[in-house]
Design goal:
426 residues, seven-stranded parallel sheet, 14 helices
Protein backbone atom coordinates (compact mmCIF):
# COMPACT_ATOMS: atom_id res chain seq x y z
CA UNK A 1 0.00 0.00 0.00
CA UNK A 2 1.47 3.35 -1.04
CA UNK A 3 1.23 6.58 1.00
CA UNK A 4 -1.85 7.85 -0.89
CA UNK A 5 -3.72 4.56 -0.42
CA UNK A 6 -2.75 4.47 3.26
CA UNK A 7 -4.06 8.00 3.78
CA UNK A 8 -7.32 7.17 1.98
CA UNK A 9 -7.78 4.06 4.10
CA UNK A 10 -7.07 6.04 7.26
CA UNK A 11 -9.60 8.72 6.26
CA UNK A 12 -12.33 6.14 5.62
CA UNK A 13 -11.60 4.45 8.95
CA UNK A 14 -11.92 7.83 10.64
CA UNK A 15 -15.28 8.54 9.00
CA UNK A 16 -16.58 5.04 9.75
CA UNK A 17 -15.60 5.53 13.39
CA UNK A 18 -17.57 8.79 13.45
CA UNK A 19 -20.51 6.95 11.89
CA UNK A 20 -20.46 4.12 14.43
CA UNK A 21 -20.30 6.60 17.30
CA UNK A 22 -23.08 8.70 15.78
CA UNK A 23 -25.37 5.70 15.28
CA UNK A 24 -24.97 4.71 18.93
CA UNK A 25 -25.46 8.31 20.07
CA UNK A 26 -28.61 8.58 17.91
CA UNK A 27 -30.19 5.74 19.87
CA UNK A 28 -29.32 7.51 23.12
CA UNK A 29 -30.51 11.00 22.17
CA UNK A 30 -33.78 9.61 20.75
CA UNK A 31 -34.60 8.44 24.31
CA UNK A 32 -33.54 11.68 26.02
CA UNK A 33 -36.19 13.73 27.77
CA UNK A 34 -37.05 17.27 26.78
CA UNK A 35 -35.56 18.46 30.08
CA UNK A 36 -32.25 16.73 29.33
CA UNK A 37 -32.04 18.23 25.86
CA UNK A 38 -32.89 21.71 27.09
CA UNK A 39 -30.31 21.40 29.87
CA UNK A 40 -27.68 20.54 27.26
CA UNK A 41 -28.64 23.50 25.03
CA UNK A 42 -28.38 25.94 27.92
CA UNK A 43 -25.10 24.37 29.03
CA UNK A 44 -23.70 24.83 25.51
CA UNK A 45 -24.81 28.47 25.58
CA UNK A 46 -22.99 28.91 28.88
CA UNK A 47 -19.83 27.34 27.50
CA UNK A 48 -19.89 29.60 24.42
CA UNK A 49 -20.45 32.69 26.55
CA UNK A 50 -17.52 31.73 28.77
CA UNK A 51 -15.35 31.02 25.72
CA UNK A 52 -16.35 34.10 23.71
CA UNK A 53 -12.83 35.56 23.50
CA UNK A 54 -11.27 32.21 22.58
CA UNK A 55 -13.85 31.76 19.83
CA UNK A 56 -13.16 35.26 18.49
CA UNK A 57 -9.42 34.59 18.52
CA UNK A 58 -9.96 31.35 16.60
CA UNK A 59 -12.16 33.19 14.12
CA UNK A 60 -9.44 35.80 13.61
CA UNK A 61 -6.97 33.02 12.75
CA UNK A 62 -9.38 31.84 10.07
CA UNK A 63 -9.93 35.38 8.78
CA UNK A 64 -6.19 36.02 8.57
CA UNK A 65 -5.68 32.76 6.69
CA UNK A 66 -8.58 33.60 4.37
CA UNK A 67 -7.15 37.03 3.60
CA UNK A 68 -3.76 35.47 2.85
CA UNK A 69 -5.49 33.11 0.39
CA UNK A 70 -7.40 36.01 -1.20
CA UNK A 71 -10.80 34.46 -0.51
CA UNK A 72 -13.69 36.18 -2.27
CA UNK A 73 -15.42 38.98 -0.31
CA UNK A 74 -18.64 36.94 -0.04
CA UNK A 75 -16.72 34.06 1.55
CA UNK A 76 -14.92 36.40 3.93
CA UNK A 77 -18.27 37.94 4.90
CA UNK A 78 -19.67 34.50 5.72
CA UNK A 79 -16.52 33.54 7.58
CA UNK A 80 -16.53 36.45 10.02
CA UNK A 81 -18.14 35.87 13.42
CA UNK A 82 -18.92 39.26 14.98
CA UNK A 83 -20.01 39.99 18.54
CA UNK A 84 -23.52 40.54 17.22
CA UNK A 85 -23.49 37.14 15.51
CA UNK A 86 -22.19 35.51 18.68
CA UNK A 87 -25.07 37.11 20.56
CA UNK A 88 -27.47 35.76 17.93
CA UNK A 89 -25.97 32.28 18.34
CA UNK A 90 -26.54 32.43 22.09
CA UNK A 91 -30.07 33.74 21.66
CA UNK A 92 -30.73 30.98 19.12
CA UNK A 93 -29.62 28.28 21.57
CA UNK A 94 -31.91 29.66 24.26
CA UNK A 95 -34.76 30.06 21.79
CA UNK A 96 -34.43 26.45 20.63
CA UNK A 97 -34.44 25.35 24.29
CA UNK A 98 -37.72 27.24 24.71
CA UNK A 99 -39.39 25.68 21.68
CA UNK A 100 -41.84 22.82 22.03
CA UNK A 101 -40.18 19.42 21.64
CA UNK A 102 -41.65 17.78 18.54
CA UNK A 103 -40.46 14.28 19.40
CA UNK A 104 -43.20 11.93 20.57
CA UNK A 105 -46.00 14.29 19.56
CA UNK A 106 -49.02 12.32 18.31
CA UNK A 107 -51.33 14.05 15.85
CA UNK A 108 -54.40 13.16 13.77
CA UNK A 109 -55.47 10.43 16.21
CA UNK A 110 -58.84 9.18 14.94
CA UNK A 111 -61.12 6.24 15.56
CA UNK A 112 -61.64 3.91 12.64
CA UNK A 113 -64.86 1.92 12.03
CA UNK A 114 -63.07 -1.16 13.39
CA UNK A 115 -62.66 0.56 16.76
CA UNK A 116 -58.89 1.08 16.57
CA UNK A 117 -57.32 4.51 16.81
CA UNK A 118 -54.81 5.57 14.15
CA UNK A 119 -52.49 8.57 14.42
CA UNK A 120 -48.99 9.71 13.61
CA UNK A 121 -46.06 10.22 15.96
CA UNK A 122 -43.17 12.57 15.21
CA UNK A 123 -39.76 10.87 15.43
CA UNK A 124 -36.09 11.80 14.76
CA UNK A 125 -34.47 11.14 11.39
CA UNK A 126 -31.47 9.48 13.08
CA UNK A 127 -27.97 10.54 12.04
CA UNK A 128 -27.65 13.75 10.02
CA UNK A 129 -24.49 14.63 8.13
CA UNK A 130 -24.12 18.38 7.55
CA UNK A 131 -21.51 19.70 5.11
CA UNK A 132 -21.03 23.45 4.95
CA UNK A 133 -18.61 26.16 3.88
CA UNK A 134 -17.51 29.21 5.91
CA UNK A 135 -20.28 30.29 8.33
CA UNK A 136 -18.94 29.02 11.69
CA UNK A 137 -22.30 29.94 13.24
CA UNK A 138 -23.73 26.94 11.37
CA UNK A 139 -21.80 24.68 13.75
CA UNK A 140 -23.84 26.02 16.65
CA UNK A 141 -27.16 26.22 14.80
CA UNK A 142 -26.86 22.69 13.44
CA UNK A 143 -25.87 21.31 16.82
CA UNK A 144 -28.81 22.96 18.59
CA UNK A 145 -31.46 21.84 16.11
CA UNK A 146 -30.18 18.29 15.77
CA UNK A 147 -29.95 17.95 19.53
CA UNK A 148 -33.46 19.28 20.26
CA UNK A 149 -35.00 17.16 17.49
CA UNK A 150 -33.41 14.01 18.94
CA UNK A 151 -30.87 13.44 16.17
CA UNK A 152 -27.15 12.76 16.23
CA UNK A 153 -25.05 14.83 13.82
CA UNK A 154 -21.72 14.70 12.05
CA UNK A 155 -20.70 18.24 11.08
CA UNK A 156 -18.08 18.87 8.42
CA UNK A 157 -17.30 22.58 8.11
CA UNK A 158 -15.04 24.12 5.50
CA UNK A 159 -11.27 24.16 5.95
CA UNK A 160 -11.39 27.98 5.92
CA UNK A 161 -13.28 27.96 9.26
CA UNK A 162 -11.43 25.07 10.93
CA UNK A 163 -10.12 26.98 13.98
CA UNK A 164 -13.44 28.61 14.84
CA UNK A 165 -15.44 25.43 14.23
CA UNK A 166 -13.19 23.47 16.57
CA UNK A 167 -13.47 26.15 19.26
CA UNK A 168 -17.27 25.96 19.07
CA UNK A 169 -17.12 22.14 18.96
CA UNK A 170 -15.32 22.10 22.31
CA UNK A 171 -18.14 24.13 23.83
CA UNK A 172 -20.75 21.78 22.38
CA UNK A 173 -18.98 18.69 23.71
CA UNK A 174 -18.55 20.27 27.15
CA UNK A 175 -22.25 21.17 27.25
CA UNK A 176 -23.30 17.65 26.29
CA UNK A 177 -21.11 16.10 28.96
CA UNK A 178 -22.26 18.58 31.61
CA UNK A 179 -25.86 17.53 30.96
CA UNK A 180 -25.10 13.81 31.01
CA UNK A 181 -25.73 13.20 27.31
CA UNK A 182 -23.55 11.15 24.96
CA UNK A 183 -20.66 13.40 23.85
CA UNK A 184 -20.83 11.83 20.37
CA UNK A 185 -24.33 13.21 19.80
CA UNK A 186 -22.70 16.11 17.95
CA UNK A 187 -19.35 15.38 16.30
CA UNK A 188 -17.42 18.04 14.40
CA UNK A 189 -14.90 16.71 11.86
CA UNK A 190 -11.40 17.88 12.81
CA UNK A 191 -9.79 17.14 9.44
CA UNK A 192 -9.69 19.14 6.22
CA UNK A 193 -9.26 16.11 3.94
CA UNK A 194 -11.66 16.43 1.00
CA UNK A 195 -12.01 12.64 1.09
CA UNK A 196 -13.98 12.95 4.34
CA UNK A 197 -16.98 14.28 2.40
CA UNK A 198 -16.73 11.53 -0.19
CA UNK A 199 -16.88 8.84 2.48
CA UNK A 200 -19.56 10.57 4.58
CA UNK A 201 -22.05 10.78 1.72
CA UNK A 202 -21.62 7.12 0.75
CA UNK A 203 -22.26 5.47 4.13
CA UNK A 204 -26.05 4.98 4.35
CA UNK A 205 -25.56 2.36 7.05
CA UNK A 206 -24.41 5.12 9.40
CA UNK A 207 -25.92 8.34 7.98
CA UNK A 208 -29.65 8.84 7.32
CA UNK A 209 -29.66 12.23 5.58
CA UNK A 210 -27.12 14.74 4.24
CA UNK A 211 -27.64 18.51 4.40
CA UNK A 212 -25.16 20.50 2.27
CA UNK A 213 -24.76 24.25 2.72
CA UNK A 214 -22.40 26.01 0.35
CA UNK A 215 -21.74 26.93 -3.25
CA UNK A 216 -23.22 25.35 -6.35
CA UNK A 217 -20.13 23.20 -6.90
CA UNK A 218 -20.35 21.58 -3.47
CA UNK A 219 -24.08 20.95 -3.66
CA UNK A 220 -23.96 19.66 -7.24
CA UNK A 221 -21.21 17.22 -6.28
CA UNK A 222 -23.09 15.93 -3.24
CA UNK A 223 -26.38 15.64 -5.15
CA UNK A 224 -24.59 13.65 -7.83
CA UNK A 225 -22.47 11.35 -5.68
CA UNK A 226 -24.44 10.85 -2.46
CA UNK A 227 -25.88 7.43 -1.63
CA UNK A 228 -27.72 9.10 1.26
CA UNK A 229 -30.89 11.23 0.82
CA UNK A 230 -30.07 14.96 0.50
CA UNK A 231 -31.92 18.08 1.70
CA UNK A 232 -30.50 20.97 -0.33
CA UNK A 233 -30.80 24.30 -2.03
CA UNK A 234 -28.65 25.21 -5.00
CA UNK A 235 -28.65 29.00 -4.86
CA UNK A 236 -30.63 32.07 -3.89
CA UNK A 237 -31.68 34.15 -6.89
CA UNK A 238 -34.26 36.15 -4.89
CA UNK A 239 -36.67 38.63 -6.49
CA UNK A 240 -38.56 41.73 -5.40
CA UNK A 241 -41.43 43.01 -7.57
CA UNK A 242 -42.55 46.64 -7.30
CA UNK A 243 -46.23 46.58 -8.26
CA UNK A 244 -48.30 49.34 -9.89
CA UNK A 245 -49.97 49.85 -6.51
CA UNK A 246 -46.88 49.89 -4.31
CA UNK A 247 -46.10 52.47 -1.65
CA UNK A 248 -42.97 53.71 -3.42
CA UNK A 249 -41.34 55.22 -0.34
CA UNK A 250 -41.57 51.88 1.47
CA UNK A 251 -40.56 50.07 -1.70
CA UNK A 252 -37.31 52.03 -1.92
CA UNK A 253 -36.51 51.24 1.72
CA UNK A 254 -37.18 47.53 1.24
CA UNK A 255 -35.21 47.34 -2.03
CA UNK A 256 -32.19 48.98 -0.38
CA UNK A 257 -32.32 46.73 2.69
CA UNK A 258 -32.88 43.52 0.73
CA UNK A 259 -29.83 44.20 -1.44
CA UNK A 260 -27.34 46.02 0.75
CA UNK A 261 -27.74 44.82 4.35
CA UNK A 262 -25.49 41.84 3.50
CA UNK A 263 -24.27 40.69 0.10
CA UNK A 264 -23.14 37.16 0.96
CA UNK A 265 -26.41 35.56 2.11
CA UNK A 266 -28.74 33.33 0.11
CA UNK A 267 -31.74 35.57 0.96
CA UNK A 268 -30.13 38.72 -0.45
CA UNK A 269 -32.06 40.40 -3.28
CA UNK A 270 -30.47 39.67 -6.67
CA UNK A 271 -33.24 40.58 -9.19
CA UNK A 272 -35.57 43.57 -9.04
CA UNK A 273 -38.71 43.83 -11.19
CA UNK A 274 -40.60 47.10 -11.57
CA UNK A 275 -44.03 47.75 -13.09
CA UNK A 276 -43.87 49.98 -16.15
CA UNK A 277 -46.33 52.54 -14.71
CA UNK A 278 -44.10 53.36 -11.70
CA UNK A 279 -40.68 52.55 -13.17
CA UNK A 280 -39.46 56.10 -13.78
CA UNK A 281 -40.48 57.49 -10.39
CA UNK A 282 -39.29 54.45 -8.47
CA UNK A 283 -35.95 53.88 -10.19
CA UNK A 284 -34.96 57.54 -10.07
CA UNK A 285 -35.65 57.49 -6.31
CA UNK A 286 -33.82 54.19 -5.77
CA UNK A 287 -30.70 54.74 -7.90
CA UNK A 288 -28.92 57.24 -5.59
CA UNK A 289 -29.14 54.76 -2.70
CA UNK A 290 -27.58 51.99 -4.77
CA UNK A 291 -24.89 54.39 -5.97
CA UNK A 292 -24.12 55.31 -2.36
CA UNK A 293 -23.60 51.61 -1.57
CA UNK A 294 -21.56 50.99 -4.73
CA UNK A 295 -24.14 48.61 -6.21
CA UNK A 296 -23.70 47.94 -9.94
CA UNK A 297 -26.99 47.92 -11.87
CA UNK A 298 -27.43 45.56 -14.81
CA UNK A 299 -30.68 46.44 -16.49
CA UNK A 300 -33.04 45.81 -19.37
CA UNK A 301 -33.24 48.35 -22.19
CA UNK A 302 -35.89 50.42 -20.37
CA UNK A 303 -33.83 50.46 -17.16
CA UNK A 304 -30.73 51.59 -19.05
CA UNK A 305 -32.80 54.33 -20.71
CA UNK A 306 -33.94 55.63 -17.30
CA UNK A 307 -30.61 55.11 -15.51
CA UNK A 308 -27.54 56.07 -17.58
CA UNK A 309 -25.24 54.42 -15.01
CA UNK A 310 -26.83 51.00 -15.64
CA UNK A 311 -25.11 48.50 -17.92
CA UNK A 312 -27.10 46.22 -20.26
CA UNK A 313 -28.08 42.93 -18.64
CA UNK A 314 -27.32 39.66 -20.40
CA UNK A 315 -29.59 36.62 -20.40
CA UNK A 316 -27.34 35.08 -17.74
CA UNK A 317 -27.98 38.01 -15.39
CA UNK A 318 -31.62 37.02 -14.94
CA UNK A 319 -30.50 33.68 -13.46
CA UNK A 320 -27.52 34.94 -11.44
CA UNK A 321 -26.87 34.72 -7.72
CA UNK A 322 -24.26 37.47 -7.44
CA UNK A 323 -23.45 37.41 -3.71
CA UNK A 324 -21.91 40.79 -4.48
CA UNK A 325 -22.94 44.48 -4.86
CA UNK A 326 -24.58 43.80 -8.23
CA UNK A 327 -28.28 43.67 -9.07
CA UNK A 328 -30.31 42.96 -12.21
CA UNK A 329 -33.33 45.19 -12.86
CA UNK A 330 -36.12 44.61 -15.36
CA UNK A 331 -39.13 46.80 -16.14
CA UNK A 332 -42.23 44.65 -16.74
CA UNK A 333 -45.75 45.36 -18.01
CA UNK A 334 -47.35 44.31 -14.74
CA UNK A 335 -48.11 41.44 -12.36
CA UNK A 336 -48.57 38.74 -15.01
CA UNK A 337 -45.17 39.36 -16.59
CA UNK A 338 -43.54 39.62 -13.16
CA UNK A 339 -44.91 36.26 -12.02
CA UNK A 340 -43.92 34.63 -15.30
CA UNK A 341 -40.38 36.04 -15.13
CA UNK A 342 -39.88 34.97 -11.52
CA UNK A 343 -41.14 31.43 -12.07
CA UNK A 344 -38.85 31.09 -15.10
CA UNK A 345 -35.67 32.48 -13.53
CA UNK A 346 -36.01 32.06 -9.76
CA UNK A 347 -34.02 29.43 -7.87
CA UNK A 348 -37.13 28.79 -5.76
CA UNK A 349 -35.74 30.45 -2.65
CA UNK A 350 -37.53 33.72 -1.73
CA UNK A 351 -39.62 36.27 -3.62
CA UNK A 352 -41.43 39.41 -2.42
CA UNK A 353 -43.99 41.86 -3.78
CA UNK A 354 -44.52 45.49 -2.76
CA UNK A 355 -48.20 46.33 -3.26
CA UNK A 356 -51.26 47.88 -1.60
CA UNK A 357 -53.58 45.81 -3.81
CA UNK A 358 -54.98 42.85 -1.82
CA UNK A 359 -55.85 40.82 -4.92
CA UNK A 360 -52.38 41.30 -6.41
CA UNK A 361 -50.82 40.21 -3.12
CA UNK A 362 -52.99 37.09 -3.00
CA UNK A 363 -52.19 36.16 -6.60
CA UNK A 364 -48.48 36.59 -5.92
CA UNK A 365 -48.67 34.35 -2.83
CA UNK A 366 -50.59 31.65 -4.71
CA UNK A 367 -48.82 31.67 -8.06
CA UNK A 368 -45.14 32.12 -7.16
CA UNK A 369 -43.50 28.68 -6.81
CA UNK A 370 -40.80 29.35 -4.21
CA UNK A 371 -40.11 28.13 -0.68
CA UNK A 372 -40.82 31.58 0.84
CA UNK A 373 -43.17 34.15 -0.70
CA UNK A 374 -43.57 37.58 0.95
CA UNK A 375 -45.69 40.71 0.77
CA UNK A 376 -44.35 44.20 1.54
CA UNK A 377 -41.16 43.10 3.23
CA UNK A 378 -37.47 42.42 2.62
CA UNK A 379 -36.28 39.04 1.35
CA UNK A 380 -33.65 39.20 4.11
CA UNK A 381 -36.28 37.90 6.53
CA UNK A 382 -36.04 34.43 4.92
CA UNK A 383 -34.21 32.96 7.87
CA UNK A 384 -35.01 30.31 10.46
CA UNK A 385 -34.24 32.63 13.36
CA UNK A 386 -36.51 35.36 11.96
CA UNK A 387 -39.26 32.76 11.36
CA UNK A 388 -39.19 31.80 15.03
CA UNK A 389 -37.50 28.44 14.47
CA UNK A 390 -34.65 29.36 16.83
CA UNK A 391 -32.16 28.57 14.09
CA UNK A 392 -32.09 26.70 10.83
CA UNK A 393 -30.16 23.80 9.44
CA UNK A 394 -30.41 25.36 5.99
CA UNK A 395 -33.03 26.60 3.54
CA UNK A 396 -34.39 23.88 1.31
CA UNK A 397 -35.65 24.66 -2.17
CA UNK A 398 -36.58 21.00 -2.63
CA UNK A 399 -40.28 20.11 -2.49
CA UNK A 400 -39.63 16.89 -0.52
CA UNK A 401 -39.02 16.27 2.44
CA UNK A 402 -38.74 19.81 3.82
CA UNK A 403 -39.12 23.20 2.12
CA UNK A 404 -37.93 26.63 3.22
CA UNK A 405 -35.94 27.18 6.43
CA UNK A 406 -35.40 23.74 7.96
CA UNK A 407 -35.95 23.86 11.69
CA UNK A 408 -36.95 21.25 14.26
CA UNK A 409 -39.90 19.81 12.35
CA UNK A 410 -37.85 19.53 9.17
CA UNK A 411 -35.39 17.28 11.01
CA UNK A 412 -38.08 14.81 11.98
CA UNK A 413 -40.27 12.25 10.29
CA UNK A 414 -43.52 10.59 11.26
CA UNK A 415 -44.58 7.03 11.90
CA UNK A 416 -48.08 5.64 12.24
CA UNK A 417 -49.24 4.55 15.67
CA UNK A 418 -52.25 2.29 16.18
CA UNK A 419 -54.06 1.94 19.52
CA UNK A 420 -56.47 -0.85 20.30
CA UNK A 421 -57.91 -2.98 23.13
CA UNK A 422 -57.59 -6.52 21.93
CA UNK A 423 -59.07 -5.67 18.55
CA UNK A 424 -58.83 -8.27 15.78
CA UNK A 425 -59.40 -7.73 12.09
CA UNK A 426 -62.50 -9.40 10.72
Amino acid sequence: MNIAESKLSDTKSYVVKLGIQAREAARDIAKASTAQKNKALLAIAGEIEASRELIKQANQLDLDAGAAKNLEPALMDRLELTDSQLDTMLEGLRQVAGLADPIGEITDLKYRPSGIQVGRMRVPLGVIGIIYESRPNVTCEAASLCLKSGNAAILRGGSEALHCNQAIAKCVEAGLQASGLNKHTIQVVDRIDREVVGHLITLPEYVDVIVPRGGKGLIARISRDSKVPVIKHLDGNCHLYIDDHADLEKAVSVAVNAKTSRYGTCCTLESLLVAQSVAKEFLLALAPHYSEHGVEIRGCAKTCELLPQAVPATQEDWDAEYLAPIISIKVVDGLDEAIDHINRHSSGHTESIMTKDFNHAQRFLREIDSSSVMVNTSTRFADGFEYGLGAEIGISTDKLHARGPVGLEGLTSQKYVVLGDGHIRQ
